[in-house]
Amino acid sequence: MGDINQSYFLEKELPKKTFNNVLDIGSKDYGNTQSFRDLVKYNNYVGIDMEAGKNVDHVVDLTKTIEPLKENIYDLIICCSVIEHVDYPWIFADNVSKLSTNKGLLYIAVPFVWKFHGYPNDYFRYTHNGVKKIFKDYNFEDCYFSTYGAHNYFKIKSDDGFAKQLTYLSTRLDNKELRFSEKIENNLGLDLATDKKPQKVLSYIQILMIGEKK
After folding, report:
1. The CATH number of the domain where 74 resides is what?
2. Tens of pLDDT along 91-133?
3. Which of 28, 56, 95, 213 sits CB 3.0–4.6 Å from 104 for a disulfide?
4. Is 70 exceeded by the pLDDT of residue 173?
5. Could you list the residue range(s) of the whole structural domain that residue 44 is in?
């Protein structure tokens, strides 16, 4: 299940094709998020979570096992707002890799800044480089971040550029909202194609990435 920017990013950045097998990790419907099933073309879709519930086909803890799932099956794996809740993320990542086909895609979204939220617990926050280290079997060419602004995300063109983007946001925030101008977006390397709506920033920043299995 995904928030509005995770869903928007998926629609814009995922290759327009029909996937054979899709695995949605953290698929439980809590009533306030959108199902990815409605946004992806597929032949077979499986949703897993650590708890049973709506939109969950199998209860699986990927830090312990991949069963009843099979290895080398899924050509698209979706993992959004999950690994901050995983106590052993390196084991989790290795099992995700086992499930992925050769050249299979992994779409992952993680919080970089967000309040404590335990489902059942909350352990980590991640940078784009942290995701690359944990999911070492995938190539991530482009990395993005988004804030509270709906239908908005920005490309991270470099580590230094990302630091400048965040510094700008932190120094110019007036505790309410910030509107990006084209001049500012150009200087920071932001994506001019996205909607330029006022948006809250800094209280929620997430990283959005799609990688291909090596």
Report:
1. 3.40.50.150
2. 999 999 999 999 999 999 999 988 888 878 999 999 999 999 9
3. 213
4. no
5. 4-145+206-213
Angle at 80 between CA 104 and CA 142, to 5 degrees: 60
C-alpha dihedral sign at 1, 38, 96, 4: negative
Strands 205-213 vs 143-146: parallel, antiparallel or unpaired: antiparallel
CA distance 197 to 178: 9
Q: What length is written for the chain?
A: 214
Task: Please give the Cα distance from 110 to 68 (Å, whole number).
Answer: 26
Are 145 and 208 spatial neighbours (Cβ–Cβ below 8 Å)?
Answer: yes
Nearest one of 208, 167, 207 to 187, comparing CA atoms: 167
For 26-48, b where at least 16 C-beta lie within 10 A, e where not — what string? bbbeeeebbbbeeebebeebbbb
Q: pLDDT tens digits, residue range 196-205?
A: 444 555 678 9
